[in-house]
């Protein structure tokens, strides 16, 4: 699939709800399962977006840290989403998709599946920074994550790097060069840049 096709799937409306208002959809094809986690729609999504204190992931051999709001949203939705995906997965390829708030949850979902022995691929469009000072060992869990940023997208620059937040992989920038501005984050801007 082309990036634009993956983006359109990522922006598809969520037909299921898990946790505290996290919407998602699972698309099945002959060869793959596509888990699409929806961006900010509910008031609760926005509350999570602005809760950027650091939260530790303690129950692992290597402790690491993430954006507290995103980590909380994922933890509340995780059990239902992973149960639904695993029940359909079989031998199919797993592709995790997200845009904006859904992109940060897609990144955390990717890490969960890798940690639990699966080999997903993730496409995160317009993704805010999620990880706080990730070690090299933690970054290795994100090898098959693709972060796609529309040039000039403000959301992909927050939380700010000076606060310790980092992307675990190199970012792919699309679209014409543009000054950083909130309008660059709009779905239409991404659609145009990916076309």
Assembly category = single chain
Give the overall shape, derived from the CA principal axes: globular
Radius of gyration: 15 Å
Query: How much of the sequence is in beta strands?
Result: 25-35%
Element string (H = helix, E = strand): HEEEHEEHEHEEHEEEH
Largest sheet: 7 strands, mixed
Distance, first to last CA: 13 Å
Structural class: alpha/beta
Helix proportion: 25-40%
Tally of alpha and pi helices: 6
- According to DSSP, the number of beta strands is 11
List low-confidence stretches: none
Rounded mean pLDDT is 90
What is the strand arrangement across the widest sheet? 1-2-3-6-7-9-11
Question: What does this protein look like?
Answer:
The protein is an alpha/beta fold and 195 residues long. Helix content is 33%, strand content 26%. It contains six helices and eleven strands. It has helices spanning 3-10, 43-49, 68-89, 101-115, 136-139, 187-194, and strands at residues 16-18, 22-28, 32-37, 54-57, 64-67, 93-99, 121-125, 131-132, 145-150, 165-166, 171-174. The strands form two sheets. The protein has a seven-stranded mixed beta sheet with strand order 1-2-3-6-7-9-11, sandwiched between helices. A four-stranded antiparallel beta sheet has the order 4-5-8-10. α2 (43-49) crosses α3 and α3 packs across α4. It is globular. The chain starts with a helix and ends with a helix.
